[in-house]
Design a protein that fits this description.
Radius of gyration: 25 Å
Largest sheet: 6 strands, antiparallel
Shape: globular
Low-confidence stretches: 4-28, 92-96, 199-236, 241-247
Oligomer: single chain
Strand order of the largest sheet: 7-6-5-4-10-11
Number of helices: 6
Helix content: 25-40%
Length: 261
């Protein structure tokens, strides 16, 4: 009987020690950094680096979806942009819009939480699948669901926290092909993809205003308003449209060092 009790105590002690050791490793190896409204977290094992961004800010989430972000990796702890993942690829990504299948929200402009919920609904039906992997002068497009690169990416919404999350899992040999490379100085950069302005889009408000401000709509124009400008002047629909566009996204440009091994 005493032998069984001693054996049980030994087993429980070993499990407890293992649990403490495992918890300690997770705490030490995981890097968590908060910048503005985003929480960045990264950790690694022998083969992979795991990275995530979480935010409750709908502007940041919308920016990631519309423009995409570059995730840079530098094993020397600097800010070199030789190795990166770009996702989503900015093509026809648009901000979430209300549709008949989306959850009912209050009329008018949706609030922050409503936009996050709309994004979650959209991702369930239309998850972007194209991404770019860059290693120095070589760039390769791959599918996030089916690829032989060993890279996994996912976008999702945590409904309990009403937050938007970006997950990335990348093999260490995709960050540096050398098998004996030291990852203890790894730095990670996150930057919104810069998009060139579309001249045709910038011209649309002027063209529409010209139709409304000339000829038929001339009687509505205020005195002294330049031809081709809306009768409401700088405070009119054109000005409000620009304000809404500016407020709808938020750029990211941030580097941090990890405690990776």
């Amino acid at each position: 009987m005493k032998t069984k009790i001693l054996l049980l105590i030994c087993i429980l002690t070993m499990k407890s020690s293992f649990a403490i050791s495992l918890y300690t490793d997770i705490v030490i190896d995981t890097t968590t950094v908060i910048n503005n409204t985003e929480t960045y977290q990264t950790y690694n094992d022998k083969a992979y680096v795991y990275f995530s961004i979480e935010t409750i800010d709908s502007k940041v989430a919308t920016s990631i979806l519309r423009q995409g972000i570059n995730i840079y990796f530098d094993t020397k702890g600097k800010k070199k942009k030789n190795v990166s993942i770009t996702y989503p690829i900015a093509n026809n990504q648009r901000p979430p819009r209300r549709n008949k299948d989306a959850p009912d929200e209050t009329r008018g402009f949706p609030d922050n939480d409503s936009i996050i919920r709309q994004i979650g609904h959209r991702l369930k039906n239309n998850m972007p699948q194209k991404a770019l992997y860059q290693y120095y002068d070589k760039t390769k497009e791959f599918n996030t669901l089916l690829n032989n690169e060993g890279i996994a990416i996912e976008l999702k919404v945590n409904e309990e926290r009403n937050s938007f999350i970006y997950y990335l899992k990348i093999p260490k040999n995709k960050i540096n092909v050398k098998s004996d490379i030291d990852f203890s100085k790894l730095s990670i950069g996150v930057k919104t993809v810069e998009r060139s302005r579309d001249n045709s889009e910038r011209a649309r408000p002027t063209q529409q205003a010209s139709v409304g401000g000339g000829g038929r709509g001339g009687g509505r124009s205020r005195g002294g308003a330049p031809q081709g400008r809306s009768g409401n002047g700088p405070g009119g629909n054109q000005g409000r449209s620009k304000d809404r566009k500016i407020e709808s996204v938020s750029t990211i440009d941030f580097w941090f060092k990890t405690t990776s091994k």
